[in-house]
Amino acid sequence: MIGKFLLFGATNSTANINIQDGGGSASFSTGLPKVAAGTPELQSILTITFGIIAAIAVLIIVIAGFKYVTSEGKSENTAKARETIIYAVVGLVISLSAEAIVAFVLKK
Q: Nearest-CA neighbor of 104 among 35, 34, 43, 25?
């Protein structure tokens, strides 16, 4: 499992930037390590990330639902809970859409 988290094993060399324009070209080192990661590794990391985001959104929906139920009819508390539920649902939809888009793009 530790190997999964070290899947971006940096090589000994650093990334370079090459700039070319009409007058010539320049190359310099960024000082950042080169990363050797392929599509499966990237997809698994993004799947885990979007899964965590979705789990947090569902947890927020549950907490806001509890606050809505226990608001005792106070309009201010019910409005806050309702807004929280709406924002969490929107976040959940965005997270699931982003995961679907990433999966679609990585498979092409």
A: 43
Instruction: Taking each helix axis as running N to C, give the angle between helix 75-107 and helix 39-69, from 0 to 180 degrees, rounded to the nearest 10.
Output: 170
pLDDT digits (tens, 9 = 90+) for 36-88: 666 777 778 888 888 899 899 999 999 999 999 998 889 999 999 999 999 99
Distances (CA, A) of 23 to 1, 19, 20, 26: 50, 11, 8, 10
pTM above 0.70, yes or no: no
- Fill in the amino acid letter for 80: K
Domains in the chain: boundaries: 2-35, 39-107
Whole-number Å distance between alpha carbons of 88 and 64: 9
